[in-house]
Design a protein that fits this description.
This protein has about 100 residues and is an alpha/beta fold. The protein has one domain (about 1-100). It is built from 4 helices and 5 strands, in the order E-H-H-E-E-H-H-E-E. The protein has helices spanning about 15-20, 20-30, 55, 60-75, and strands at about 1-5, 35-40, 45-50, 80-85, 90-100. The protein has a 5-stranded mixed β-sheet with strand order 1-5-4-2-3, sandwiched between helices. The two termini are about 15 Å apart.
């Protein structure tokens, strides 16, 4: 996972998609803020979902859970949140960390 400075210009196409949908993504986070959500942007469906973080982490294979749980805890402790890009068409799942 990468911590992203929203003011930094990048060539990452997924990051551009996140910024384009930033208002919806931030609303999805704020609506469920008490559950420390992970926000997923499914770019094939063009939909944004907000999941309780611990529930979302349980969807990952066992060998990936520990690292994801550590990163998730850091985001909670650091007043940040995770946005996951789900690109099923290209079989990619990429995560970003943003300041709240």
């Amino acid at each position: 996972m990468k911590v992203i400075d929203k003011n930094k210009i990048t060539e990452d196409p997924y990051l551009h998609m996140i910024y384009r949908e930033w208002n919806t993504i931030s609303l999805a986070y704020k609506e469920f803020e008490n559950n420390n959500p992970i926000v997923e942007y499914n770019i094939v469906e063009d939909k944004i979902y907000s999941y309780p973080g611990n529930d979302y982490i349980q969807l990952f294979p066992k060998e990936e859970k520990n690292e994801i749980e550590k990163e998730y805890q850091k985001t909670i402790d650091g007043n940040k949140f995770i946005v996951v890009i789900n690109d099923k068409e290209n079989e990619k799942l990429k995560s970003y960390i943003f300041e709240i």
